[in-house]
Automatic annotation (TrEMBL), chain A:
Reactions that this protein is recorded to catalyse: aldehydo-D-ribose 5-phosphate + D-glyceraldehyde 3-phosphate + L-glutamine = pyridoxal 5'-phosphate + L-glutamate + phosphate + 3 H2O + H(+)
The protein's name: Pyridoxal 5'-phosphate synthase subunit PdxS
Binding site for D-ribose 5-phosphate: 35, 164, 225, 246-247
Species per Swiss-Prot/TrEMBL record: Nocardioides cremeus
Superkingdom of origin: Bacteria
Gene3D superfamilies reported in the protein's UniProt record: Aldolase class I
SUPFAM superfamilies according to UniProt: Ribulose-phoshate binding barrel
Quaternary state and interactors: In the presence of PdxT, forms a dodecamer of heterodimers.
Residues that hold D-glyceraldehyde 3-phosphate according to the record: 176
Class of enzymatic activity (EC top level): lyase
NCBIfam families per record: PRK04180.1, pyridoxal 5'-phosphate synthase lyase subunit PdxS
PROSITE patterns xref list: PDXS_SNZ_1 (PS01235), PDXS_SNZ_2 (PS51129)
Reported function: Catalyzes the formation of pyridoxal 5'-phosphate from ribose 5-phosphate (RBP), glyceraldehyde 3-phosphate (G3P) and ammonia. The ammonia is provided by the PdxT subunit. Can also use ribulose 5-phosphate and dihydroxyacetone phosphate as substrates, resulting from enzyme-catalyzed isomerization of RBP and G3P, respectively.
Pathway given in the UniProt record: Cofactor biosynthesis; pyridoxal 5'-phosphate biosynthesis
Length: 305, 189
């Protein structure tokens, strides 16, 4: 039983409730969400079986290579992607940049990603996501961070990983950390949860809810560095509800085929023969970058807190 | 899907996940949950499940489709992707994302025939039924607002479909209606 979502007080139809926001993410479970920078890529993603696309100006690998300040995308570009596909369209706003989020909501984007991949606009506060009808997804590297984002109104969480690297190791670390901390909470006695809440720097009620249900009250996807069907299947076996693939598809040799293969491997993540089958003849994966070789100040996952 | 399982188990039903034709063959009834109808149809096609599903549904397998599942049970789809395939079975035309984008997603009471009190309908990028054939029983329409009068729940023989998510919110009455359809046809009691 979730405690946070409230039944609307009125008999009238109500938009922007927790239930429709969190429920939207529920509908994406088991699926793959793909970064796209053009309408053509969006159509390739839809044809490959993506459950949603993330519209952005540059994929993380290019943001990393080109540097500079990275911001929300041009509304024209987002419009063109919305017009080209029928699946949900997500888009990124900078951490704390509530006006970028307002703009994205007004464009009719289906989900806003308050993302560390873009340059943060506020180094103290995240967006107050309760003020919006559009739901938000936020990144997290550990349980405390995930719960703080949910407290601010996030309706979906993704582990951060290290975007734009093709190195899955941080996605693994973050997913194991979040799920491990949840398992630890579930084993605590009731009187130990007060200290746990203090240590997690998250509200007690939310901590107690997670301890009781043994999972987050929202959907938990994975992101950051997923480049192959086996990467996606591993993250699903580790307990992710679904997968974001950023640079991994359109920075590879054969995007359409790789996109489809990652979708199939995500669906049949517990079937090694299927993962093997879809992994054949995919051509070049994206060029990788080891997270260890990235100087700490340039690691995107360390943005947000 | 988790909520569908919870609602059905509350009513004493055993549930399995169906991803392969052999899993389908073991079922007395089927629930097609929400999700992205394009993705679901594409995967079903790719993995050889679409034809077995069509045969099973046409052959009398009781099936409940919610949201995207409603689209899959429709004979005709408006605003789909080019060449969008469905399982079919209910003589109706369904409009995809009919209520608009996610910011227009809503929840509210739905008056449903066969139930005394309204159910709480959660509509997420939901479809509606544009028109139905003569054999289709309309179970619910939108009560309020711009979409008032639009059909959001139907039944045709052993098939039932809702635009909204009856599984969200701990009310299993819609599932009960479906189970009542299934029980007389079930191989085991």
């Amino acid at each position: 039983m979730t405690q946070t979502p409230q039944q609307p007080a009125t008999d009238q139809p109500t938009t922007g409730t927790d239930r429709v926001k969190r429920g939207m993410a529920e509908m994406l479970k088991g699926g793959v969400i793909m970064d796209v920078v053009t309408a053509e890529q969006a159509r390739i993603a839809e044809d490959a079986g993506a459950v949603a696309v993330m519209a952005l100006e540059r994929v993380p690998a290019d943001i990393r290579a080109q540097g500079g300040v990275s911001r929300a995308s041009d509304p024209d570009m987002i419009d063109s992607i919305i017009d080209s596909v029928s699946i949900p369209v997500m888009a990124k706003a900078r951490i704390g940049h509530f006006v970028e989020a307002q703009v994205l909501q007004s464009l009719g984007v289906d989900y806003v990603d308050e993302s560390e991949v873009l340059t943060p606009a506020d180094y103290a506060n995240h967006i107050d996501k309760w003020q919006f009808d559009v739901p938000f997804v936020c990144g997290a590297t550990n349980l405390g961070e995930a719960l703080r984002r949910i407290t601010e109104g996030a309706a979906m969480i993704r582990s951060k990983g290290e975007a734009g690297t093709g190195d899955v190791s941080n996605a693994v670390t973050h997913m194991r950390t979040i799920l491990g901390e949840i398992r630890r909470l579930s084993a605590l006695s009731k009187d130990e949860l007060y200290v746990a809440a203090k240590e997690l720097q998250a509200p007690y009620d939310l901590v107690a809810e997670v301890a009781e249900r043994g999972s987050l009250p929202v959907v938990l996807f994975t992101a950051g560095g997923i480049a192959t069907p086996a990467d996606a299947a591993m993250m699903m076996q580790l307990g992710a509800d679904g997968v974001f693939v950023g640079s991994g598809i359109f920075k590879s040799g054969n995007p359409a085929q790789r996109a489809e293969a990652i979708v199939k491997a995500t669906t049949f993540h517990d079937d090694p023969a299927m993962v093997a089958k879809v992994s054949r003849g995919l051509g070049e994966a994206m060029v990788g970058l080891n997270v260890d070789e990235i100087p700490a100040p340039h690691r995107l996952s360390e943005r947000g807190w | 899907m988790r909520e569908h399982v919870a609602a059905l188990e509350l009513l004493g039903c055993a549930t399995v996940r169906v991803r392969r034709p052999e899993e389908l063959a073991a079922c007395d009834a089927l629930v097609l949950p929400g999700g992205e109808s394009t993705t679901m149809a594409r995967l079903a096609h790719t993995f050889g499940l679409l034809e077995p599903l069509r045969a099973a549904v046409a052959g009398g397998l009781p099936t409940l489709g919610t949201c995207a599942g409603m689209i899959l049970l429709a004979e005709r789809v408006l605003d789909g992707v080019e060449g969008q395939e469905t399982i079919g079975g209910i003589d109706m035309t369904v409009r995809r994302n009919a209520f608009g984008r996610q910011v227009a997603s809503f929840e509210g009471p739905v008056t449903m025939s066969g139930l005394d009190e309204p159910v709480h309908g959660v509509f997420i990028r939901a479809p509606w039924v544009e028109e139905v054939g003569p054999g289709v029983e309309v179970l619910a329409r939108v009560d309020h607002g711009e979409a008032a009068g639009r059909i959001v729940a139907v039944r045709e023989g052993h098939l039932m479909a809702t635009s909204f998510h009856p599984e969200v919110g701990g009310d299993s009455r819609v599932h009960q209606l479906f189970v009542d359809l299934v029980r007389p046809r079930s191989r085991v009691e």
